[in-house]
């Protein structure tokens, strides 16, 4: 499971506080020898230095230890932690059995203060991190049960690689050896598909039994046909491609059904034991099936087409929208606001999410651009539309809240209310701003909360019940909601006056969601066979009827003047359908049966898991978790020194440590420079447990250079001893709100260098020490981006820096700089116009600091000066989306370009010198060798106005944060 990327998406150079990408310009002679090594080293980088953030410094931690797990949790989360320990341990044998492997003890860290529902299985250091609050879009299985199956399966997958050559490599590289092996050779669709298969077979629910999970794949095959293997595995900017969870599940499940579980054991064994083969995963597959990945995918498609039949015709009556034009667009949560207008949440590749009003003629008007809405849930009860928006804590990344927003669909008026609490799925009561919502406290207790402008009531739900998507009952006297517990899903009712909860329906493992109450009926989305349809249940008689016969899936019902408005899924996205209830002939409802789910029955027979032993005593030990005693956690090492920032690797060694709370990061090693033929010991420490963050770095050793011997007139090599110390204190603050990402970063850095002569150092070479202080303040404001955007449509940043010498024998300058970037829309959609301005002033002495402000592209040498002014214009735009592949070597998803003109004025003497350049970048975004990590490469042509000549550069970057 992954955090939703669209809300946090940043681009290289736009927001260096959130994510750090590698440098775009790499000289050709450096690229060829180091790029493969850098790729290998960086594959686990996201794991070994990836952290989801820190909890508040005041958090006190406890632990519970079982035979296979160590649960680490805040001391106020005792009950949830005990349940987590029991579930993970109880499921562990079953999760391990399919891959026939045994794992080492795995830490599980619980984070209860984030509104997001997510979990991360991370290998280096090995751990599972859990955001414990359940989601509002949940299938018929408790959240922690789901995580115990799915996330632990990822740990089992990586443990499967702890054999053969890969195990031997772990002695050289530590835990990162397994992550490298998986990243290079194991397709992402297998990792997620196998985990989804596990959660489905070892429970009575799981995504394999949820109709909406497969509807995207089903519709694509029926209406668009199968995509190439590369496109299905690696995605597209051109077309919607079912995600790796969906595609992976169907491939894994089909191959297990036809060839047995041995096929995936063979593939993982081959990766672990023979990673030196060109394609070990394929070799393992062929050993059992005679087919490679592409062959298994084609067999899966053929089988699904047979089982799902061909293009199917449903009964939907669509509201046509003039602006669709065949692009993949979702119109979600449709509501009929008056007789002639429908309002919906629109999502697409080309634009960030928008709430739009659609007229009877099919014209579209934007009412509002929201921020990130968990699970894309928007409610309507005849007055205000309401939803919850994610609101991050400025400092602590594992803490967040929701704002509640109200929108009048008639006139577009928007009101925002902030409560500094975790509120979900709000539904307004009529015309006022009173609303009901699901609320979770940090200790895991769940409530149905009713909040008005001057009062509120909190109703604690029954124990072990997770409430989902409340809806107002008749006349606002009750609340109907869906409850999830160990017995599945059911409808429950809260009588507001008596404060009593009661069951409306019996629990079942079939899917029910999206309740809407009208005229004595609950309208909802439910499973009918292997598809989602709109159903209704009479509140008095409990009679249940089916109202739709959607081809691929219907959802999110709403009633207006005896008309049913709902979503109907197609291969081009969710469309809005409307039908009069007077013309509907309800069909009898029968519960889903095991045979409705292809493969599940047969695959379940392959599992040896007997179920949870509720009598098992899983606790080995428990107590307080000492932050001080667990500051260091060495997890990986390497017989090289890897300078990831500079994209180089040199002889030496390095050791990496990251503690389980992600507050202390340490890298230490020896770095031998082959050019200088000298080496330095280096240690870098980062402490993120407080406010603000602290960093320290120290290096000491030999350096070397060349100087002209005045007596012999030749260049001679000499060396000196150098010690460097860097200390910094700084903090990034996130003030994002709505569809605006904004933040502030401040840092102060102290740098000390000491140079000492040895017997070879010339006397005229400086000897002594230099210390400097640097200050930086950086702020940014960007609008939320769409998938296809190359830069924000609107936004700016500002960067102020100052550096000066403190003391020492080395007389140095001081330097001050200001930089800013402004982003505006281009001529067409997803085009971006960018303006850069930088001004720098310095007071040069004997030592000159490096330029802070960026200068005109293409010039290798420029005069140093007291004053520097730099202006840049960029125009970025996509060219096309080829989805081109050449066997398994390369898959090109996008070609893009950037036109630019740079102007730099250097005030050395009078007159000032001007450096101008113009040019164009041509870039391709692609994947190499089927690896999931996106790569960008291309060329830059630059015309140097002053020198009247063309120069060319190679461009290359790797985005390890979209992996």
Protein topology:
Layout: H1 5-8, H2 28-42, H3 45-48, E1 61-65, E2 69-74, H4 78-97, E3 106-111, E4 118-123, E5 126-131, H5 143-160, H6 164-173, H7 176-185, H8 188-201, H9 211-223, H10 229-234, H11 244-259, H12 262-273, H13 280-289, H14 293-308, E6 329-338, E7 341-348, E8 354-358, E9 364-368, E10 379-380, E11 385-392, E12 400-407, E13 414-428, E14 435-440, E15 446-451, E16 456-460, E17 466-472, E18 478-485, E19 488-495, E20 500-503, E21 512-518, E22 521-528, E23 531-538, E24 544-546, E25 554-560, E26 563-570, E27 573-580, E28 587-588, H15 600-606, E29 621-625, E30 634-643, E31 648-658, E32 664-673, E33 678-687, E34 693-709, E35 714-734, E36 740-757, E37 768-783, E38 795-808, E39 814-825, E40 832-843, E41 867-880, E42 884-886, E43 890-907, E44 913-928, E45 935-944, E46 949-958
Parallel strand pairs: 2-3, 3-5
Antiparallel strand pairs: 1-2, 1-29, 4-5, 6-7, 7-8, 8-9, 10-11, 11-12, 12-13, 13-14, 14-15, 15-16, 17-18, 18-19, 19-20, 21-22, 22-23, 23-24, 24-28, 25-26, 26-27, 30-31, 31-32, 32-33, 33-34, 34-35, 35-36, 36-37, 37-38, 38-39, 39-40, 40-41, 41-43, 42-43, 43-44, 44-45, 45-46
Helix pairs in contact: 4-5, 5-8, 6-7, 6-12, 8-11, 11-14, 12-13
Helix/sheet category: alpha+beta
Per the principal axes of the C-alpha atoms, what is the gross shape? globular
The major β-sheet equals: 17 strands, antiparallel
Helical amount among residues, as a percent range?
Answer: 10-25%
Number of strands: 46
Q: Into which percentage range does the β-strand content fall?
A: 35-45%
Overall average residue pLDDT: 89
Radius of gyration: 30 Å
């Amino acid at each position: 499971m992954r955090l939703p990327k669209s809300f946090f998406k940043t681009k290289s150079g736009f927001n260096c506080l959130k994510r750090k990408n590698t440098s775009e310009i790499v000289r050709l002679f450096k690229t060829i020898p180091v790029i493969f090594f850098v790729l290998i080293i960086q594959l686990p980088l996201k794991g070994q230095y990836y952290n989801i953030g820190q909890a508040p410094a005041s958090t006190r931690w406890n632990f519970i230890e079982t035979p296979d797990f160590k649960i680490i949790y805040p001391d106020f989360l005792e009950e949830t932690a005990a349940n987590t320990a029991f579930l993970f341990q109880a499921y562990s044998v079953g999760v391990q059995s399919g891959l026939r492997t045994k794992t080492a003890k795995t830490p599980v860290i619980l984070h209860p203060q984030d509104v997001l529902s997510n979990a991360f299985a991370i290998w280096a250091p090995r751990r599972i991190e859990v955001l414990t609050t359940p989601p509002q879009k949940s299938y018929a299985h408790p959240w922690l049960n789901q995580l115990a199956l799915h996330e632990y399966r990822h740990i089992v997958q990586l443990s499967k690689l702890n054999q053969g050559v890969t195990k031997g490599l772990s002695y050289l590289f530590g835990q990162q050896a397994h992550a490298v092996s998986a990243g290079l050779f194991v397709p992402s669709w297998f990792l997620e598909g196998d985990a989804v298969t596990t959660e489905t077979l070892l429970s009575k629910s799981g995504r394999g039994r949820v109709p909406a999970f497969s509807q995207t794949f089903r519709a694509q095959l029926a209406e668009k046909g199968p995509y190439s293997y590369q496109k299905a595995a690696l995605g597209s900017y051109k077309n919607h491609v079912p995600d790796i969870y969906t595609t992976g599940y169907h491939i894994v499940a089909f191959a297990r059904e036809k060839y047995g579980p041995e096929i995936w054991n063979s593939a993982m064994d081959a990766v672990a034991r023979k990673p030196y083969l060109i394609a070990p995963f394929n070799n393992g597959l062929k050993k059992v099936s005679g087919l490679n990945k592409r062959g298994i995918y084609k067999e899966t498609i053929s089988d699904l087409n047979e089982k799902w039949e061909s293009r199917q015709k449903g009964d939907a009556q669509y509201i046509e929208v003039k602006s669709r034009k065949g692009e993949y667009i979702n119109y979600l949560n449709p509501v009929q606001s008056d007789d002639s207008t429908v309002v919906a949440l629109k999502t697409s590749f080309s634009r960030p999410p928008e709430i739009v009003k659609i007229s009877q003629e099919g014209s579209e008007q934007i009412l509002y651009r929201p921020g990130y809405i968990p699970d894309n849930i928007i409610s309507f009860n005849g007055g205000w539309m309401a939803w919850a928006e994610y609101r991050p804590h400025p400092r602590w990344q594992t803490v967040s809240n929701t704002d509640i927003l109200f929108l009048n669909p008639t006139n577009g008026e928007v009101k925002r209310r902030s409560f500094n609490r975790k509120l979900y799925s709000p539904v307004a009561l009529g015309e006022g701003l009173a609303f009901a919502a699901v609320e979770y406290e940090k200790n895991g207790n769940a409530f149905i909360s009713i909040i008005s402008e001057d009062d509120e009531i909190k109703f604690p739900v029954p124990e072990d019940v997770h409430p989902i998507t409340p809806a107002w009952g008749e006349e606002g006297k009750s609340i109907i909601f869906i409850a999830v517990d160990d017995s599945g899903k059911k409808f429950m009712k809260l009588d507001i006056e008596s404060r009593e909860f009661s069951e409306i329906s019996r629990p079942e493992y079939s899917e029910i969601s999206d309740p809407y109450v009208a005229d004595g009926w609950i309208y909802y989305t439910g499973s009918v066979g292997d598809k989602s349809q709109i159903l209704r249940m009479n509140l008095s008689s409990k009679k249940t009827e089916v109202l739709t016969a959607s081809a691929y899936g219907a959802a999110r019902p709403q009633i207006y003047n005896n008309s049913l408005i709902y979503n109907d899924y197609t291969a081009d996205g969710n469309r809005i359908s409307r039908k009069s209830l007077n013309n509907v002939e309800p069909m009898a409802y029968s519960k889903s049966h095991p045979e409705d789910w292809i493969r599940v029955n047969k695959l379940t027979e392959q599992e040896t898991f007997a179920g949870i032993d509720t009598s098992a005593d899983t606790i080995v030990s428990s107590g307080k978790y000492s932050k001080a005693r667990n500051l260091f956690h060495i997890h990986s090492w390497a017989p090289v020194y890897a300078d990831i920032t500079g994209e180089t690797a040199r002889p030496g060694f390095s050791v990496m440590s990251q503690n389980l709370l992600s507050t202390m990061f340490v890298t230490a090693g020896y770095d031998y420079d082959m050019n200088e033929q000298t080496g330095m010991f280096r240690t870098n420490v980062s402490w993120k447990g407080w406010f603000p963050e602290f960093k320290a770095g120290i290096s000491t050793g030999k350096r070397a250079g060349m100087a002209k011997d005045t007596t012999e007139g030749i260049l001679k090599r000499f060396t000196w001893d150098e010690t460097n110390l860097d200390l910094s204190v700084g903090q990034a603050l996130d003030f994002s709100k709505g569809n605006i990402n904004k933040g502030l970063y401040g840092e102060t850095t102290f740098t000390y260098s000491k140079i000492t002569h040895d017997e070879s150092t010339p006397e005229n070479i400086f000897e002594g020490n230099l210390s400097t202080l640097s200050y930086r303040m950086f702020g940014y404001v960007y609008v939320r981006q769409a998938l296809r955007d190359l830069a924000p449509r609107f936004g700016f940043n500002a960067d102020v820096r100052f550096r000066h010498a403190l003391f020492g024998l080395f007389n140095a300058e001081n330097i001050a700089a200001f930089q800013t970037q402004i982003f505006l829309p281009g001529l067409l959609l997803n085009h971006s116009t960018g303006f850069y301005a930088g001004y720098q002033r310095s007071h040069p002495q004997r030592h000159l600091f490096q330029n802070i402000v960026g200068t005109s592209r293409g010039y290798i040498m420029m005069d140093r000066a007291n004053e520097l002014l730099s202006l840049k214009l960029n125009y970025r735009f996509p060219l096309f989306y080829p989805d081109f592949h050449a066997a398994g070597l390369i898959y090109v998803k996008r070609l893009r370009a950037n036109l630019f003109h740079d102007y730099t004025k250097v005030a050395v003497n009078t007159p000032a010198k001007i450096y101008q350049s113009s040019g164009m970048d041509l870039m391709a975004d692609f994947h190499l060798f089927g690896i999931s990590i996106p790569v960008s490469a291309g060329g830059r042509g630059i015309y140097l106005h002053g020198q009247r000549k063309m120069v060319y550069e190679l461009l290359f970057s790797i985005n390890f944060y979209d992996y």
